[in-house]
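Incident log, entry 3
Record: soluble epoxide hydrolase (320 residues)
Problem: checksum mismatch between cached and fresh output.
Input:
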Amino acid sequence: MEKIQHSNIKVNGISMHIAQIPVNTTNTPIIFLHGFPELWYTWRHQMIHLSSLGYHTIAPDLRGYGDTSAPSSATEYTAFHIVGDIVGLLDHLGLDKVFVVGHDWGAMIAWYFCLLKPDRVKALVNMSVVFSPRNPAKKPIETLRKMFGSDYYICRFQEPGVVEAEFARVDTALVIKKFLASRKPGLLCVPKEVGFGGNPNSKIPLPSWLSEDDVNYFATKFKRTGFTGGLNYYRAMDLNWELTAAWTGEQIKVPVKFIVGDLDLTYNTPGVKDFIHKGGFSKHVPFLQEVVIMEGVAHYINQEKPREVSEHIYDFIKKF
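Fresh output:
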């Protein structure tokens, strides 16, 4: 961890915190994009492993997270804002093309990045969240509500302040543990009467891959910032749908490797397995070269299986 350098840079009108391990090499650098509720820290293992193999590794706190600026309005968290932040980061570092690695919301942003700026991407390794082609007839939140009900977590995240208040009823470290240690592969539905905080006296045993120090790192940052920045990504989903109308039908045209755990709640969302395995995924991502289903692995795959994920990334990017 002592190899990781930290700095804050000005990009796209915000201050962005980046962690990186510079390496004097001709290899294409790698940028890692984290999900919710995570930080650059989720990529610590991959950064160290891949830097030892000669790759400059870069992991920002995305807009709204950690030590990066967090605009208050959800309208400032569209895919165009986040992709703009990433392009600004690459320009600041003088990087033309990069390998992109994403997970969870970071995977969503990675898909958008490849859709909007494929000229800056050499290849993509994405985890957990498949590419979702835009349906011009269906707004995302309304569609999810009809399919899975109003208690579905993405629907519950929509109203500003409500879920934040539920999180605030319990210790921030407990919220982090609830997410990172979860292994339920079914739909995440949380009725209002239960709340996302749940019982403040809950004891959640940590899996072997997650330490109290890890939890405390996340918790310290989220205790300071709150969760609104991360939740605003969900609150901008319909706006993303509106703004990307001109890209309806566009494919992802960069080389892609996709990795997901068989216990991941995203993989077990109705329709996703068929989309992946029956041709829908490869139709919309025509340069999809590999799909890896990791057995017995849940959502936070890059932390749960750090070495295996690092090796999967290297095995793919070393081809280019």
